[in-house]
Every structure is written in structure tokens, then in C-alpha cells.
Amino acid sequence: MTARGKRSGPKKVATSRVQESDKPRLRRLSDAEKLEKIRQIEAAVAGGATLKDAVGTASISDQTYYIWKKALAALTLGTSSSPVAVDDGFAEFIQLEEENRRLRKLLGEKLRAENVELRKRLGIN
User: Which of 80, 85, 92, 99 has the smallest set of CB atoms within 10 Å of its CB?
Assistant: First the structure.
């Protein structure tokens, strides 16, 4: 067989793997910084931006936002029963979240009632 008939496979180049210890440590945000980013995102969403855009401007992923929000909700449930002192900004945030939940519930009830009324008018159901 001639050299022309042989195909040489791709050359394997030895690459050096980066050790875990060689990687720079990721910057971890403090709880206050996380809370500030959550406030920034919620303010942007309240201003009419989409959640995806607001999360992008805060330089975090959607998943990170939801993880932080879930952790914050768990924290607020834990602090409501314990007498741990929290700063005024955090206490205000908790109060606003509770107010937000209450208003969402009222809006949902109102929209359901309007939906029922419209269905009656249209003769659906």
C-alpha cells in the first residue's frame, strides 16, 4: 500500500490540565450584596424590564437569582420567629415581600372573579 492510501488520524496534542488548586477562586458575594442585587432586579422588573434582562444587568444567572431568592425566603421565615436583630434595610425588604405576597393574592382573587363574570356574559361554562 502506498503512502497516498493511508490516512493519518488527527494528531493528539498533549495538553496540560489545569489543577483545581491552579484555578482562581470565584468571588463570593456577601449576604448584603446578594440582597442588593435582588432589590436591583426586582426594581428593574417593577419598572417594566423583563426578568431575563434585569438578571443580566445584575451580572448573575437566572438560576442564581432563584437560588438567592429561595434562600432569602427561607431566611425570612426563620427570622420571623426568632428575636435576632436585623438591619433596617433587611427588615424593610421582608415587610415589602410580605406586602407583595398579599397584593398578589388580592389581584389573583380579583382576576378570578372577573374571569368568572366574563365567562357568564359570554355563556362559557
Answer: 85
Angle separating helix axes 31-46 and 88-122, nearest 10 degrees = 30
- What span, in angstroms and rounded, lies between the C-alpha atoms of 14 and 95? 58
42, 31 in Cβ contact below 8 A? no
Distance (Å, whole) CA 79 – CA 81 = 5
Which of 3-7, 41-45, 89-93, 102-106 bottoms out in mean pLDDT, i.e. has the lowest? 3-7
Q: How far is the first Cα of the chain from the last one, in angstroms, to the nearest whole number?
A: 81
Tell me, what DSSP letter sits at residue 23?
Answer: S
12/69 Cα distance (integer angstroms): 46
* 90 closest CA partner among 52, 36, 44: 36
The DSSP element (H or E) to which 125 belongs, if any, is: none
